[in-house]
Amino acid sequence: MEAKIRIGLAPTRRSIFSAPDAVKYADLTRRKLDELGVEYVDIKDINPEGLLYDDADRAKIAEKFKREKVDGLFLPHGNFGTEYECARLAKELNVPVLLWGPRDERPEPDGMRLRDSQCGLFATGKVLRRFGIPFTYLTNCRLEDPEFSRGVLDFLAVCNTVRAFRHIRILQIGPRPFDFWSTMCNEGELLERFNIQLAPIPLPELKTEIDRVQREEKTAVDEVVAYCHEHMTCDIPDPLLRNVAGLKLAMRSLATQYGANAIAIQCWNALQGEIGIMPCAANALLNEEGLPVVCETDIHGAITQILIEAAGMNRDRGLFADWTVRHPDNENGELLQHCGPWPISVAQEKPTICVPVAFTHNGAISAEARHERLTIARFDGDGGQYSLLLGHARGIDGPYTKGTYLWIEVNNLKRLEAKVVEGPYIHHCVGLFQDVVPILYEACKYIGVTPDLYDPIEDQVRAYLRGEDVTFDEV
């Protein structure tokens, strides 16, 4: 389901310029936001002009926006604007800020200028910096210009990404597998730095919930089994398929119980001794429903999937993958693969529930993903420093392999390979069939994470964000 974002709309003016023109442009901005379907909290009830310029009104506006739980703040400068009121309001709300003003008209015949909005934007940008407030700048343009619509909608996606990052709680099912030292994380630091919370439970608690579900929710189990038969080829005995269904329902139940919006599970080997299956198909079913589930207790991987899906406004599901082997024929080709946790909506063929590569238990999924352009990302860190690796790729032809997989091509695999090996990243990443690189890049300024582009496209990303027409280098 697509995310819904609500922003606080606080048009601003300065007294020495035309107040009627500031009111006029504030109303035109409201009309344009209505056309775009943007949900916003207005301030027309705060004063007759519906504008921000007075400190007493600013306090009322802040109270209203906090009460309405706005996800972002939009500060259109109808004329020059009152920069310190903008900064005070933004500081109190602590949400992403969009700074914009309509392009100024030709001076009047007598030489007078009514608004000087661009000059006000320069002033407000400086004062926001003095207050230590990160902000997004939408270029000084007309409401009818395409960069306005694009900039506003991109800002909503940034707000959604920041909101998701600030409300992460991950259900950790079991410790990391002993052999996976690469997936260790610093739980205390994640909480202290980012308010990212973990809800760890042992595998026996999961087994107890599976037993309860299979005993008390037989109809729900039957529905999951029927869904699997309808949407997948089930090369798995029916008792084990019912275990897949029980596991799926149990994980959903535990995530609800602990208030988690993602899951990281110790997928092997103890789990197989308890329920006799790989969890991949159950993971895929939950991923399809929009509850991210990642393998091998990879907490940073779960964070990545939350971020990348939020950047896409939760319209599409992410695919949690290993960087595995180089393409046998394409020097810039690489295999993204995992035992089968990918949502079935990314597949270009009907998936099969079966036995995965390298394991002997059933319950994985095999299917090749669609050959489309995608964003790839990885949140990670060590030594107290966190960054987000991100870039573009596209699906290409390649040899058949087991599991959920996609052969991809990037611009320079050697450069990407060095990034992953030299760190702080590992062999896990998340892909999404949308271009959300600029959104993730911009969101990093609000969440305290360093963006790390694996291709040298930072100038292009920044140009896109300031409203220029940009074509990224095709891979």
Could you characterize the architecture of this molecule?
With 475 residues, the chain is of the alpha/beta class. It folds into 2 domains: 160 residues, Rossmann fold, CATH 3.40.50.10940; 297 residues, L-fucose Isomerase, Chain A, domain 2 (3-Layer(aba) Sandwich), CATH 3.40.275. Helix content is 40%, strand content 20%. It is built from 15 helices and 19 strands. The strands form 3 sheets. It has a 6-stranded antiparallel β-barrel. A 5-stranded parallel sheet has the order 2-1-3-4-5, sandwiched between helices. A 4-stranded parallel sheet has the order 7-6-9-10, with helices on both faces. Helix 5 packs antiparallel against helix 12 and helix 7 crosses helix 9. It starts with 5 loop residues before the first strand and ends in a 10-residue tail after the last helix.
Task: Compute the number of helices.
Answer: 15
**Helical percentage:** 25-40%
Beta-strand percent range:
15-25%
The CATH superfamily title of the largest domain: L-fucose Isomerase, Chain A, domain 2
Report the radius of gyration as a whole number of Å: 25 Å
The averaged pLDDT comes out at: 94
Main β-sheet, spatial strand arrangement: 11-12-17-16-15-18
Question: How many structural domains?
Answer: 2
Largest sheet: 6 strands, antiparallel, barrel
How many strand segments? 19
CATH topology-level fold name of the largest domain:
L-fucose Isomerase, Chain A, domain 2
The backbone outline, from C-alpha atoms, is: elongated
Oligomer: single chain
- The CATH class of the largest domain turns out to be Alpha Beta
- Low-confidence stretches are none
N-end to C-end Cα span = 30 Å
CATH architecture of the largest domain: 3-Layer(aba) Sandwich
Helix/sheet category = alpha/beta
